[in-house]
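Incident review: delayed structure delivery

Summary: a single-chain prediction request sat in the queue longer than the usual turnaround. Root cause was a stuck worker, restarted by the on-call engineer. No data loss occurred. The affected request and its eventual output are reproduced below so the record is complete for anyone auditing the incident later.

Affected input:
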Amino acid sequence: MKGVFFVLLLLLAGLLAPIQGTTQHYFFGNPVIRNFKPEEFKGGIQSWGMVQDPEEVLYIANNFGLLEFDGATWNLYPVKGGTKVRSVFAGKDGRIYVGSQADFGYFKPDVRGVLQYFSLADSLPAKYRNFDEVWRIYEQGGRIYFLTFKNIYSYEPGKAVKVVAPANPLEFSFQVNKDIYTLVWGKGLSILEHHQLKLLPAGEFFADKQIASVLPFDRNRLIIFTIQHGIYLYDGQRVTPFPLASENEFSNILINQAILLKDGAFAMGTQNKGLLLMDSQGNLLLNTSVQNGLLDNTIHTLYQDNQENLWLGLNNGLSMVELSSPFSRLDGTMGLSGTGYAALLKGNDLYLGTNSGLFVGSISSQRKQFALVPNSRGQVYHLNYLQNHLLMAHHNGPFVVKDGKANLIHSMGGAWDFVPVPKHPNRLILGGYSGISLLSISETDLGFVKKLEGLDESSRVLEFDKDGELWMAHGYKGLFRITFDQTLDKIASVRFYNSRHGLPSDQLINMEKIRNEIIFPALYGVYRFDKAKDRFVLDKTFSDLFEPTEHIIEMEEDVQGNIYFISNQRVGRITYDKFGKPTLEDKLFKHLREQLNDDLSYIHVLDINNVLFGAKEGFIHYNAAKTKKMVPFHTHVTKVVNISGEADSLLLSGSGLHGGQGPELPYALNSLRFVYASSFYEKPEKTQYQYFLENFDTGWSEWTTRTEKEYTNLPEGQYTFQVRARNIYGTVSQAKSLTFLVNPPFYRSRWAYLFYAVCGLLLLGAGFYEINKRFTKEKRRLILDKERKLGQKELEIREITNQSEQEIDRLRNEKFQAELDHKNRELTYSTIHLINKNELLNSVKLELQDMLKNGSPTAQQDEMKKIIRNIDHNITSEVDWKQFEFHFNHVHGDFIHRLQEKFPSLTPQEIKLSTYLRLNLTTKDIAQLLNISVRGVEISRYRLRKRLNLDRSENLSDFMLKF
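Output delivered after worker restart:
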């Protein structure tokens, strides 16, 4: 089995080899281009030179002056007289050197960081003052060279300008490996040595040929681009024509400038054909012009920035070409119209289906153009190439593309997709708007067989499993598992699956065939079908790669097993290492999501290195062989503006902020706006920023695309403002910091506090003097008052003593009364105890009497009678009750007397019952005290209620307690 699999891989590799060989291009489509019109950068239409400083800020020589672009804002700095700036150079000393018409000099930041122009030509002797334009500026050996068509001017900072004045007029000059070359008109290509121009061997070849650029080709040779006489190689002794792969591709072009790119290719800015890219073998890699998205076909200057983007100074505007990006566009600039839905590569012909129709173009040409296939206008859903037939699933039905034309197979209505039937090479299943149909196919014939009854659902996503059963995923209902009879003439059964079978929902269930197995990305999570359980189970391997709430919309596998995907959150690729461990990569694809087709997402792998994504406008091509270098980029504070007053005022700008040390501000300027930018120029409007003001903010802010932050009414103190950027690929720059100090207001300054201290001491001294004066005066009065008051105090003391003694007597009496009350309460409780004792003795006496009546022996009877006499002697008499009544009235506020006065008809027994209720005794205790039964107590209570005329709702005990 492994041997068969290996053979199949070899065959597949053999089949793919010609495809890969024909699709390895510098750009498959058109590169991403960002255009800047003059109205946007507020400069002149033409630009002639470009350079970046160490902070990666871009400077451009423009018709209106020096343009500065920090990634967010444009600034224009005119030179003396407002002349056109033709050249620019960023010096190591922080100066920006410029050359213009009849002048050259440098820009240097003032104390606020605003660039100011200083002319160097003004110091020249009069005879060297008459020159035209400075077209090139180079540095060599610590000296800055300004090269014109007449003279060469050499400047060493702090010293006088030296002049090289050749006899013949000059043409453009060039620098290669620190050597400066120039074309002396009529003599040839020369090199500048020791402030003299020396003709190179064989340099006379170029005596009458204008040179556009001189660049290094290899260690021993230079490549020389002329404006209109071709391209040459120079080895130091002889000049030979550079071999071009196709002379026709480079015919009739006028080259204004050429540069060597970081990947070894040569970029040429032309006068009439836009941008051309050529490799070292003379192959044309790319030709981009107005037709492909440029603003203008005339390119005056080229510059590749630190992020490997190629900047073009046009005759009318500026353009930036994202050469480092592995993504390119196939859209309206190539004749393609509509949103991308389907793609198919057949030989060198690339078929692209959109909502506008089917388009075809050749990938063998660098100038790709697509044309509409006749009779294909309308929505295209899918493309298949099966048994020598190019099939197209279309809104109007199934089509076959033959002889350059789309032909309808059957008028059945809309068609979604074609699926080959396993083990039946002559049969196809066609998924349509209203179910599935059967087609017959061979290398010479294709025909509609029948509509299969038993499934009337719209069948867009279809896949056969290993058992030969057809699965259909319906995005809004669930999954259908379809079984055919052996002849494929009819559907044998249809089984429906949804959330009742293990899936997380009924909607948004997708189906993909990965590694020859069907998986089911659901609303969240990826599932597989367990046939034994007839249920769906979560696939942990795939599900763990994604977020818990992430919904996978589309997946596509290449021949190496890499899986490209689109989800509701991102776009990315899953790769596997040699141990089979998966890794999800999405950083490179972060900026794609918003550009893609959000109707029916689409991915198509053309070959191992070329992948197409359906976009809102055409397609986006991904070149997997082209690695995007995530080069670090800078974030910088570009301006600090005071917003405290009615009008904003600039405090610091540009170069004045590069050191990280900001201003020392008075308190009146404690409201500031910080403006910042980053040097990442790909989609700068999508770059996000975080800021943090130390000693004010609690932490980093949320990410935002705003490029400024305001702080108002900052308290005095030292602050450090930090800002960092995150580009479209998720790369975060190093934070840029700016430290500044807000001084306190004058009334809280050190001098103010010193003044306050001196004034305080003076006031304190004056206060002490005045107090001492008053003290002496008061002292005499106090002595007299003291004697008078002493007498009054003695009287008051006596009075207080008397009052104290009276108070003591009162307190003593109160204490005595309290003790008396306490003893009365104790007496009451003792009396009650005696009553209880009497009751007990009565009970014992009665029992003894009963025993006597029962006829006990005489001796015992005598003894019992003696005991009874003792008990009678010890039972408390009515005197005990009187004593209890006395103490009870004293403790309970004369309760018995008040009760008798209000209710004179009460009997003594009822009076006793009332007192016991007042004491809150239980019914059992009262029965013992009254020497009656519990039932007798209840009857007595009833009679007492009637005597007191109480309502049924009133509680007798509560009445006694409150009486």
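Verification: The longest strand covers residues 717-726.
Action items: add queue-age alerting; document worker restart procedure.
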